[in-house]
Design goal:
alpha/beta, Spore Coat Polysaccharide Biosynthesis Protein SpsA, Chain A, 7 helices, 9 strands
Length: 196
């Protein structure tokens, strides 16, 4: 087994309401004949020891991919942090990486590079960055931040970058793979990326 994936749980974030996609479940929308989440799983699963899908609706459809499906423990579709919290709560490993269900082109070396950055810096969280833009839903965190995250959520916090601003964080550059972080939020973007 690749050293970079040892001791890492992957969490696919599919818990949102898909408002910009017209209120449909984004992860289950077809891209080139397969649900978007299938492309994400195909890229992320080989990089981790364990894979969890965070979903709050259509859980049977997600379970059909053969991985554990967990819902948010925080009510009211509280966003990606609630999904991370659910994943951290179920993770069997000390490191947890997240990727959203609407980013089917994510880097094949996402975990290896985030982990190298995390370990070199001794940080609590490594976040992917392309040029000046951070991608907070692509991050590798130490599972022991769960208490801090739970307190942040209980206090009404929802903004992912505000939460990790309170942690020891390292940004890991992916300028060479900027296109890999393209995400698909609308029917127009879905059409644009088909047959890419």
């Amino acid at each position: 087994m690749n050293e970079a994936m040892r001791g890492v749980t992957g969490v696919v974030l599919a818990g949102g309401l898909g408002r910009r996609m017209g209120g449909v479940d984004k992860g289950l929308q077809a891209l080139d004949g397969r649900p978007m989440v299938a492309w994400v799983i195909e890229r992320l699963a080989p990089q981790v020891d364990q894979l969890i899908i965070n979903a709050n609706q259509n859980r049977e459809a997600y379970a059909a991919f053969g991985y554990s499906v967990v819902g948010d423990r925080v009510p009211g579709f509280a966003g990606p942090l609630a999904g991370l919290h659910a994943g951290l709560s179920e993770a069997a490993h000390p490191l947890v990486v997240t990727a959203p269900c609407d980013s089917p082109f994510l880097p094949a070396d996402l975990v290896a590079r985030l982990r190298a950055g995390l370990e070199e810096s001794g940080a609590q969280l490594a976040v992917a960055r392309t040029f000046e833009q951070s991608h907070p839903v692509f991050s590798l965190v130490r599972r022991d931040v769960i208490g801090h995250l739970a307190a942040f959520l209980e206090g009404g916090g929802r903004k992912i970058d505000r939460w990790y601003a309170e942690l020891a964080t390292v940004a890991v550059g992916f300028d060479d793979e900027a296109e890999a972080f393209s995400n698909i939020n609308t029917p127009e973007e879905l059409a644009l990326h088909s047959r890419r």
